[in-house]
Amino acid sequence: MTDVDYCVVGGGFAGLAAALRLKQAGRTVALLEARDRLGGRTFTEVRTDGSWIDRGGAWIGPGQDRVRAMMHEFGVPSYRQYTDGEAMIVVDGEQHRYTGTVPWSMSPWAAMNIGAALLELGHMCKSIPLEAPWTAGNADKWDRVSLAHWLHHNTLSKSAYALLETAIAGCYTSDAAEVSLLFVLYQMASGGGPGFVLGVHDGAQDARPVGGMGAIYRPMAVELGDSIHLAQPVRHIHQDADKVTVRSDELIVRARRVIVAVPLAIASQILFDPMLPVDRSFLHQRMPSGSIIKTAVVYDEPFWRADDLSGQSAAPGSPATITIDACTDTGRPGILCVITEGPIARRIGRLDAPERRAATLTALAERFGDKARTPVDYIEQNWSIERYSGGGMLSHAPTGVLTQFGHALRRPCGRIHWAGTESSAVMCGWVDGAIRSGERAASEVVEHESLVTSGGKSTTR
Ligand SMILES: Cc1cc2nc3c(=O)[nH]c(=O)nc-3n(C[C@H](O)[C@H](O)[C@H](O)COP(=O)(O)OP(=O)(O)OC[C@H]3O[C@@H](n4cnc5c(N)ncnc54)[C@H](O)[C@@H]3O)c2cc1C
Known about the structure:
Protein name: FAD-dependent oxidoreductase
Largest sheet: 7 strands, mixed
Structural class: alpha/beta
Shape: globular
Bound molecules: flavin-adenine dinucleotide
Number of strands: 21
Strand content: 15-25%
Organism: Nocardia bovistercoris
Strand order of the largest sheet: 8-7-17-18-19-16-20
InterPro entries: Amino_oxidase, FAD/NAD-bd_sf, Flavin_amine_oxidase, Flavin_MAO
Distance between the termini: 27 Å
CATH topology of the largest domain: FAD/NAD(P)-binding domain
Low-confidence stretches: none
Number of helices: 15
Cofactor: FAD
GO molecular function, one term: oxidoreductase activity
């Protein structure tokens, strides 16, 4: 039995940020993490040659000020994403190399259609109030339809549809029919619009921390020291008039309040006693995650750079749907990141590992040449089967969920406060949003203390 001021459930960036800020404010904290490692949907593996692989979240972009602040606090520098050379898209079996943002050679007509659709989405994003997207003027209309419905009515060719679906639905690692249009607009708006979300240079893939995400979460953990308890999946949270009791298989923590920082998709695995209010418990049932397989294919050197290719490519329907250069700041060894999402990730997830590897390398060889067939290392991470993530990259809202249950995303339930990237109004879905949510939840519980000591009325019950 441990008695502390506050308990935090989950040791991803949200939980770590919450615990760190509370500890820095002089409070005692116990952080219970289910896995035997920290980082959650980020997971940095350091290879024997000193290079690193980010098996989960990796990139940062402009406007992500809280992850930048955390990097500054722990002295973690960043480096720009490699974008020299041409990108490539493969449509209807044909390869198109291009520079800039629009692959005109594919079909000027389709390219214009894609540009116009993105402009329209950007325009719609501007009308979304980030703190309460369910109050947008068109919220009801947009929450009734899926992204697939909107794409269907706003694309004029099969190839424009396929590319937009790969790019946009890919962000939610789901089929476009699974995701509410309102949720897409909200999530994109929270990052500044489609240009940021889909962009590399000056977009969400603009830069990386030197040493990977682990270079940030490891020193956070060092500062938290023995407040962290690994391999402690929380099973039960009970609240009474004075305190909360948080139970894992081995630990019982008594605390004034608890911050739960686990993905929405798996939050209902915890037994809450008394039961959560209906809107919150139904939210847990209604925000699933998508499927994503992220693979680092390692070569002695980034041979694609010599062929004037950036390493960035997209091929809707392929087992290697998206690729991007994922070398470290030194540029050696050559690391190509392959991302496969949604229905294709589930399909190739059913193959056995050697078959999946063969299919992926064949797809890479078709794009980058025969050298792609012989990597020196191949590191695959299937987030869809991670018990304590429930999929990736983020939990999304299908139609009807944000307007009905969105208001419960951040609202505390008695002594239980909520963090996690999905609860962040800004940079929702990114590491930056996770840090913001943890810092917000830490402020909430501390603010509550001052309400109590000043005789103010609790706003949380
Ligand atoms: C493949 C992939 C690529 C991505 N790329 C990027 C990117 O380039 N840039 C970016 O910014 N973001 C990216 N993301 C998203 C980013 O990783 C997440 O937004 C962020 O890590 C979420 O942090 P979190 O703390 O909210 O949740 P998590 O990281 O999911 O943390 C939740 C923690 O809770 C733990 N937990 C779960 N259940 C329990 C329980 N019952 N008891 C105790 N602990 C529990 C989990 O083990 C986990 O450690 C990517 C994600 C994936 C999967």
